[in-house]
Amino acid sequence: MEEQAQPKWRGKSSAEVNGHAAQEVWPLLADFCNLHKVFPKVETCYQLEGIAGQTGLVRYCAGFASNRDESTIKWAKERLLMIDPIKRCLSYEVIDSNMGFKSYVAIMHVVPINGDGSMIEWSFVCDPTEGRKMEDVQSFGESSLQSIAKKIEHVLTILK
Which of 19, 124, 157, 160 is the least crowded, having the fewest Cβ atoms under 10 Å away? Predict the structure, then answer.
């Protein structure tokens, strides 16, 4: 008997960045290898290969160790698939990680709202991941996006 392929997991979330226009928010997300500056759960992020701002760029991102135990660090290598500064949109894929993802592609989009505000929209498609539930992946994405939006608000407020 053939093994039947499981359907892909799909999710999306959004978070407001209050008081800051989309054109202010976009450069912070478009800076693909500096995710650690706007994502509090990421301790380090740096370029592994490719050219900054161009498709094919690969970054390495890692979180913090729990109780100083290096084996608890979650990490991923991600490739920039598409970046569009006019539409303020980028797409990336996880090419390697210790989190069990075999296929994961995400899109981030910054859109204007309420005159002086903006919204970060994030969506993903991935293969089911052993040891995880779709709801856990979605929940992690939602909480991560909320923390990114708050950090961007903070950074942009300081810069004003």
Answer: 160
pTM above 0.90, yes or no: yes
Could you report the per-residue pLDDT of 104-140, keeping only the tens digit for each? 999 999 999 987 899 999 999 999 988 889 999 999 9
Count of Cβ atoms closer than 10 Å to residue 95 Cβ: 14
Answer for the pair 33, 57: CB distance below 8 angstroms, yes or no.
yes
| Rounded (10°) angle between helices 134-159 and 22-30 | 120
Minimal CA–CA distance to 26: which of 114, 152, 146, 159?
Answer: 152
Distance CA 33, CA 31 (A): 6
Instruction: Determine whether 88 is exposed, middle or buried from the number of CB atoms within 10 Å of its CB (0-12, 13-18, 19+).
Output: buried
Taking Cα atoms as reference points, which of 18, 19, 11, 27 lies closest to residue 121? 11
